[in-house]
Amino acid sequence: MGMPIQRFAVGPMGNNTYVVFDEASKEAAIVDPSKGSGPVLVWMKSRGLLPKYVLNTHGHSDHTFDNGLAMDGSDASLMIGEPDEAMLEELAKGDGWLGKPEMPSPMADAYLEHEQELVLGMTAIRVLHTPGHTPGSSCFVYENVVMTGDTLFQHSIGRTDFPGGSMPEILTSIRTRLFDLPDETVVLPGHNDISTILNERRYNPFVGEGSTIDLSQFQKG
């Protein structure tokens, strides 16, 4: 890969926070700065990496808790899917189960758009809008890797029983956008272990080849 990536498991829910960076320019993107991301920022500083983007795959607090910490003192742009920005306001109140962040999340500098390209040095991260887990859920693709947040996990999918969740939408997002990626694409989820698109297409019980879930069962008569 032309653009390295580092994964950190942080927080009480074992969130995966990712740092994608360009070696030549030292420009970096922090994806989902979850609670306990302090060591992530220390690691970046030790490598001389300069945050250009702070990217949220979606607005749930376990993925956005340390947005403020990641943004502090940097010129980075905070980006999230527009439908999820209201969740950042809720995070700032500090009345969620994770408590109050050390630094409240600012509002987004810009919204993520489907098929948008975010440039880091000589390489670009491609944005895919993948609603279902939340209305504003997004995934990030570069070369042979996709960071899927809580949309697609190893042999599982994101919950849809939270406000704004939709089973038809998440199934459609995975089947028409993520499964359109090459088989060898590595899946880097928001929690737990990595996988590949081929592995999920074949064996995921919710959306794989053997899945019995059909969109028609969610259609209203």
User: What is the helical fraction, as a range of percent?
Assistant: 10-25%
User: What distance lies between the first and last C-alpha atoms, to the nearest angstrom?
Assistant: 48 Å
Secondary structure: number of strands: 14
Strand order of the largest sheet: 1-2-3-4-5-6
Indicate the structural class: alpha/beta
In N-to-C order, the SSE pattern is: EEEHEHHEHEEEEEEEHEEH
Using only C-alpha atoms, the radius of gyration works out to 17 Å
Oligomer: single chain
Overall, the morphology is globular
Q: Give a quick account of the main beta sheet: strands, pairing sense, barrel closure.
A: 6 strands, mixed
How much of the polypeptide forms β-strand, as a percent range?
Answer: 25-35%
Catalogue the unreliable spans.
none
Short description:
The chain has six helices and 14 strands.
Please characterize this protein's 3D structure.
The protein has 221 residues and is α/β, with parallel strands linked by helices. 20% of the residues lie in helices and 28% in strands. It contains 6 helices and 14 strands. It has helices at residues 38-46, 61-64, 67-71, 86-93, 167-178, 197-203; strands at 5-10, 15-21, 27-31, 50-55, 77-80, 110-111, 117-120, 123-129, 138-142, 145-149, 152-153, 156-157, 186-189, 195-196. The strands form 3 sheets. Strands 1-2-3-4-5-6 form a 6-stranded mixed beta sheet. Strands 7-8-9-10-13-14 form a 6-stranded mixed beta sheet.
